[in-house]
Amino acid sequence: MTRPSRWLPILCALACADGDATTGDGSTGDATSSGSDGSASAASASASASASTSVSTQGTGASATTDASATAGDSSAGEGSSDGGSTGGQACVDDHRVVAYLANWAQCPTAEQLAQYSHVVIAFAVSYTWTPDGVVCDESCTLSPVDGCVGTPLPDLVAQLHDAGIEVVLSFGGASMGGLWEGTCGQMTKCWDHCLDQVDAVTAQLVDLVEANDLDGVDIDYEYCLDDASYVDFVTGLTSELRAGLDAAFPDDHKLVTHAPMDSELELGDPYFDIVATVADDLDFLMPQYYNGGRSPFVPEQLAQIHDHFGALVDGPFGGDASKVVFGWCIEPGCQPVATQPAALEVTTMFDAWYPDNGGIFFWAHPDDTGAWFSQPMREHYDATVCPH
Q: What gap in Å lies between CA 191 and CA 230, rounded to an integer?
């Protein structure tokens, strides 16, 4: 889907603005996304290095800057919308989400951060044990106990997030389960490989985790091989069985099923695109990572490609329902690009014009949302432009 009448003024506005944007003050962390348990995000160092190579082959370099002027780190940006969006509570329109990935090896989010989030995705449920020398995969794909955040067990964290009006999803996977950037498919044995014939068992474990911790659903963060039928069948089967299992276990309480793939794996004709088309009815929403895949929304030509990519997902698997697609940002140092404000909000506003009923935004990850510098402008934008007055 294209809207050529909008492209020239919008892209010119993005390219011609003055100044530089920076990430939030107080942003910390290294490019590994590794915490004390060794978990790694979708924005891992290896992924970033791989993505950097992809970007530089397009002649864009590894620049994470934009041509917007302002400092994202001012957590007071905006004075709050008239309907109180900056003061707390769940976003008033569910389909315009502000989804934060919560790194469960880090300090818990502050009240200021939680006031901006409609959904929190807890990262990660995994089938390995972390050691200083690397992860040790469980060959039966048995999931390890899942932490909440530092000092707060998972059930207590979920209760606190619910008290704040936030829906809570548990993400299964992540980079340390195995990532495409770590080697050539067929020449590596990562934790995902031990799960390929364990769809029923994995589904049962995830449903049990939802029930035991009063979770609102499960996210699948799969960034691994799809080079043969066994991998495709695993991702497809896990999604469909998870949907069926949650519906059976919670007949009166709809639980969410989401995916968060790399955008580079979601091109029309790619296996993951076809998987999404197959399981579209089982998904509540899809969260493409528009980072580390070789394109930046802050480069006008690449923004045009992302627009087409987003549109292909909306118009293909989801039959025109833009609420099923949530735009992914990364605010962690080491991502390509690192999202900045107000540039990210400008792009979000463009997508609101192109797809008024889009599914909102997500970002990796909460530790770098210091003072809610990234999430608060997004939340205020939705509260001011979408919510009833």
A: 14
Kindly list the distances between the CA atom of residue 280 and the CA atoms of 59, 177, 179, 226, in Å, as whole numbers in the listed order.
35, 24, 24, 18
Judge whether residue 128 has pLDDT over 90. yes
Residue 150 in domain:
yes
pTM above 0.90, yes or no: no
User: Can you tell me the distance from the alpha carbon of 86 to that of 109, in angstroms, rounded to the nearest whole number?
Assistant: 15
Tell how far CA 38 is from the center of its chain. 19
For residue 199, tell me if it sits in a domain.
Answer: yes
pLDDT at 2 over 70: no
Write out the E strands in 1-150: 21-22, 70-71, 97-103, 119-125, 128-131, 134-137
The whole-number average pLDDT for the span 143-153 is 97
Half-sphere exposure of 145 (CA within 13 A, CB side): 6
With respect to residue 255, please indicate whether it lies within any of the assigned structural domains: yes
Provide DSSP, 218-232: EEEE--S--SSHHHH
Q: How many domains does the chain have?
A: 1
The CA-atom distances, in angstroms, between 165 and each of 79, 249, 261, 374 are 21, 23, 26, 19
Q: What percent of the chain has pLDDT over 90?
A: 70
- With CA atoms as reference, report the closest residue to 178 among 44, 274, 272, 37: 44
Q: Is 294 inside any structural domain?
A: yes
Higher pLDDT pick, 51 / 331: 331
Domain of residue 346 covers 19-380
